[in-house]
């Protein structure tokens, strides 16, 4: 489980850095935080296993997670709050963001598949 958490953290960092959309970056940040906290607790629980003898690693890994947390706080603070879409659930809207009017909200009828197809391209 610890390896899973570590792998998800790195994948979500890459996903957040892959674009600059505040809402997506915040979603990834929330997942990163969750898995980092799991990892912190799981590493700490190793102290209670009789077969785990390298207790000094618990302190070392927890120290690294604490340092990661400080970098994480700076990283999240650097997200561009002007580049976002409105989160209908209200979790990942930047502070002070104003909800869009009903005219500005996404409507399923707004989707047109032809916007994504190029009629001039006969390669397919």
Automatic annotation (TrEMBL):
This is Uncharacterized protein. It comes from Flavobacterium macrobrachii.
């Amino acid at each position: 489980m610890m390896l899973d958490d570590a792998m998800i953290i790195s994948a979500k960092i890459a996903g957040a850095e892959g674009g600059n959309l505040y809402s997506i970056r915040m979603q990834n940040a929330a997942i990163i935080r969750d898995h980092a906290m799991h990892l912190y607790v799981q590493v700490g629980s190793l102290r209670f296993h009789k077969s785990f003898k390298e207790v000094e690693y618990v302190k070392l890994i927890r120290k690294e997670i604490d340092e990661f947390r400080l970098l994480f706080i700076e990283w999240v603070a650097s997200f561009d709050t002007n580049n976002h879409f409105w989160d209908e659930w209200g979790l990942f809207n930047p502070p002070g963001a104003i909800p869009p009017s009903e005219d500005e909200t996404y409507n399923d009828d707004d989707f047109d598949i032809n916007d994504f197809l190029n009629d001039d391209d006969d390669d397919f």
